[in-house]
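Title: Prediction job returns without error message
Component: structure pipeline
Severity: low
Priority: P3
Assignee: unassigned

Description:
Job completed but the reporter wants confirmation the result is attached to the right record. Sequence as submitted:
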Amino acid sequence: MNKKSKTRSNKTVKKQSNSKSLKNDLLETKDKYLRLYSEFENYRRRTSKEKIEMINSANKELIGLILPIIDDFERAIKSISKENLKTSIEGFELIFQKLNSLLEKQGVKKMKIKTGDDFDPDFHEAITKTPSKKNLKGKIVDVIENGYILDEKVIRFAKVVTGS
C-alpha cells in the first residue's frame, strides 16, 4: 500500500468513528430531551391537579362556614308567624351581620360608595344615566347593587346610576 491509500483509509476510519460518535451523542441528547419533556409534562399535570384540589378544598371550607348561617335563616323564616314582626326583623339583622362578618373574615369587603362619588369604571358598572344637577354630572347618583372586593381584586362591580 502506498502512503496516499493509507491516508485515505485512515481518514475514512476517522470519519466513520467520528460519525458513530456524533450519532451516539445525538441519541443521548434525544433521550435526555424525551426524559426531560416527560418529566415536565408530569410536573405540569401534577401541579394542575394540586391546584384544582386546593380550590375544591377552599370551596368546601367556605361552604361549611356558610351552612350554619343558612340554618339560621331557615329557623328565622319558620319563626316569623310565631313571633311579632319586630323580633323577626331583629333576627334577620343578626343573621345578616353574621354573614357579613364571615365574609369579612374571608377577605371580602363591601365597596364604600355614596351619592356624589366620581364614577370609576375599574370599580363601577353604569346601569343607566339619569338627568341630574350640574354638580352630579358624571358622578354616582344611586347605587343599585353593591360591589365587593376580595384581597384587593374586584369580584363584583358596583352597579350604579350616573348623572348626565
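Comment from assignee: result matches the submitted record. Helices lie at 3-79, 85-105.
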